[in-house]
Amino acid sequence: MEIDPRQQQATVDSARATERAEESALRLQRDEGERQRKLFEAGVTSRDAYDQERQTLRERQGGLRVGRSTAQDARRTLAYYTIRAPFEGVVGDIPVHVGDMASPANSSAMALTTVDENKDLEAYIYVPPSAPARSTMGWRSI
User: Distance between CA 47 and CA 25 in Å, rounded?
Assistant: First the structure.
């Protein structure tokens, strides 16, 4: 079963764009730092100006680490939008309503269902009459 992932996919795309922007800013800062180093060594700029450039470079490196971590976290969260059964068995009716949220097992949210036996698994998902155009019939292995 797949929960509509469009909102989370947009979050992933946004985080990836931020990561690319941080990479670009870091490259630019490295170039500027190299220019400042050469100017300092030639005696054109002060030690303070050179140190400030080095500090800005360290901040940009930290920003890139944060950007990469955010993008990785968003991709990891996107995986929760596809629900896979670890084995076959019967679940029965799952009492969910529009707006209910599915979350990882270690979350504080209420569990939708639990499985006690390692037997055949079936899930019945009711599609309202107003939604058949957005739905497909059948089953697929994930």
Answer: 23
- What lies within 8 Å, CB to CB, of 56 at 6+ separation is 29, 32, 33
> Distance between CA 108 and CA 24 in Å, rounded?
39
Spatial separation of the C-alpha atoms in residues 57 and 115, rounded to whole Å:
52
Q: What is the DSSP string of 11-35?
A: HHHHHHHHHHHHHHHHHHHHHHHHH
Pairing of strands 92-93, 123-124: parallel
pTM, two decimals, is 0.55
pLDDT 10s digits, 87-130? 666 655 666 666 666 555 555 555 555 555 656 656 666 666 66
Cα–Cα–Cα angle for 72, 3, 5, rounded to 5 degrees: 45
Query: What is the C-alpha to C-alpha distance for residues 122 and 39, in angstroms, rounded to an integer?
Result: 70
Place of tokens 């929960």: 3
**Is there a contact between 25 and 58 (Cβ–Cβ < 8 Å)?**
no
Q: 2 has which bridge partners? A: 82
CA distances from 119 to 34, 42, 91, 122 (A): 64, 76, 10, 10
Residue matched to tokens 């799952």:
94
